[in-house]
Design a protein that fits this description.
The chain contains 17 helices and 13 strands. With 438 residues, the chain is α/β, with parallel strands linked by helices. It has three domains: 177 residues, inorganic pyrophosphatase (n-terminal core); 141 residues, no CATH class; 107 residues, Diaminopimelate Epimerase, Chain A, domain 1, CATH 3.10.310. The strands form three sheets. It has a six-stranded mixed β-sheet with strand order 8-9-10-11-13-12. Strands 2-1-3-4-5 form a five-stranded parallel β-sheet. Strands 6-7 form a two-stranded antiparallel ribbon. Helix 11 packs across helix 13 and helix 16 packs antiparallel against helix 17.
């Protein structure tokens, strides 16, 4: 199916969701706590405010957490729901799901249901459209909301998606609306070039704690570390891009990330933080730090939240960089996977994402973070390996075997299991990956 026909079918589903919303005065919204979920929440909040609807928005780490609702109100899930057909079938009120995860079965609704998901219309929710993108299409059916395209960029970047399919359509509409601008550049934060390179997590350049290497990097590239990233001229951008690609090649980084790092930069003209890479990281950091409300306020234009959010991002980035430096030597080899088991670590997700994309790209990487009697699992691989290994299926099957739940995308998935089952779970994950790679 072409992306044009897929988008058309998605809009039809989004129209049904908008129709259902228009029949209710109050909407109870639950969304995920990462960059995609928070930006989806911001789009929904802005669209509902403009439509004159009352609502309450809450953030969940996943549907393993409980949620409340009352009969007669509308319950809306963003960035979750599709992978829990059994749970959604039990909801006894009108229901809207705006998600991009792979559905795990058909929902049997007790009341009215509008289910908007790219996978249901022949599109790829892993690369072509995130939950914030789905929420954007919903918002444009609810009212004149094309200016919210800039918020959707945060979700697509946060979920490491490509500017293709539905995402490309959103960027195109955002440019037409005057809220997105494309520029040449390298995906780095605004500010001094030296600081941006030293603390960069996406791309991860491994300069943290290696200041002499950074100094030599800048010298060879004939770049001034005190120059502002946003003020680099075309020749400086070219030299920086060449130097970054060379370093990543030396690190044995998965080359598929290069197109996301060098070439175009998206400027979000109606956001408080206009650098899309920087805004994505700030929103994600707030989510990981458990202060989603600050990120939501930032996206909705609250000036008072700006400095708070940037400070949270600075602190969180250093914590992740320190954790990466400490944990990378603890990674162990399975037959077909690598794995890392942490006790009370910062978070499994950023460690898994960074190491699998930039340092250990030749095998799927499974990171387990044990806290008390529970274990949170993040599984990551790259696009090439994902053609053979479906991590969403691996996480689902392995987690269910040990009494947990799992799912996600082919390239990025997760699970929640009991701490006592970690060894058994990892053995099953390794077995499943070997079977798929055989």
């Amino acid at each position: 199916m072409s992306s044009i026909s897929g988008i058309s079918l998605l809009r039809e589903r989004a129209r049904k969701a908008a129709d259902l919303v228009e029949r209710h005065d109050f909407i109870r919204v639950y969304t995920h706590h990462d960059a995609d979920g928070i930006s989806a929440g911001a789009i929904i909040a802005k669209a509902l405010l403009r439509a004159g609807k009352s609502f309450q928005i809450s953030f969940l780490k996943g549907l393993n957490e409980s949620f409340d609702y009352e009969k007669g109100e509308l319950l809306l899930f963003a960035d979750m729901g599709s992978g829990y057909a059994d749970l959604m079938s039990e909801v006894d009120t009108d229901l809207v799901i705006l998600d991009h995860h792979i559905p795990n079965g058909e929902i049997q609704p007790k009341r009215n249901l509008a289910h908007v998901n790219p996978h249901l219309v022949g599109m790829d929710g892993t690369y072509e459209l995130s939950a914030s993108g789905v929420s954007y299409f919903f918002a444009t059916e609810l009212g004149r909301n094309r200016d919210l395209a800039s918020m959707a960029v945060v979700g697509m970047l946060g979920d490491k998606q490509k500017i293709i399919g539905g995402n490309a359509e959103i960027v195109r509409e955002g440019i037409e609306a005057g809220v997105i601008e494309e520029k040449k550049g390298v995906a780095l934060h605004s500010g001094k070039l030296r600081d941006a390179l030293l603390k960069s997590l996406e791309p991860y350049l491994d300069f943290y704690g290696r200041e002499e290497e950074l100094k030599e990097f800048l010298r060879k590239a004939r770049l001034d570390g005190d120059r502002d990233v946003d003020n680099l001229d075309d020749d400086e951008i070219r030299r920086l891009a060449d130097a970054v690609v060379l370093r990543l090649l030396q690190m044995k980084t998965y080359t598929g990330v290069f197109e996301q790092i060098v070439g175009k930069r998206l400027i979000l003209k109606n956001m408080l933080v206009k650098n899309s890479v920087m805004l994505t990281d700030v929103v994600n950091s707030c989510g990981r730090a458990g202060v989603m409300s600050i990120a939501l306020s930032l996206l909705l234009g609250d000036v008072d939240s700006l400095n708070k959010a940037i400070k949270i991002n600075d602190d969180y980035t250093i914590q992740v960089l320190e954790e990466l430096k400490r944990r990378r030597d603890e990674v162990r080899e399975g037959f077909c996977i690598r794995y890392l088991v942490m006790e009370d670590g910062l978070s499994a997700s950023p460690i898994a994402t960074t190491l699998s994309r930039y340092i250990m790209a030749d095998k799927p990487l499974i990171v387990v973070n044990i806290k008390n009697e529970y274990a949170k699992v993040s599984a990551r691989t790259n696009e090439d390996l994902a053609r053979r290994v479906d991590l969403a299926e691996v996480m689902k099957v392995a987690a269910e075997k040990v009494g947990g739940r799992g799912g996600g995308h082919r390239v990025a998935a997760g699970a929640n299991i009991s701490a006592e089952k970690v060894d058994e779970f990892l053995k099953e994950v390794d077995r499943l990956c070997c079977a798929m790679l055989a």
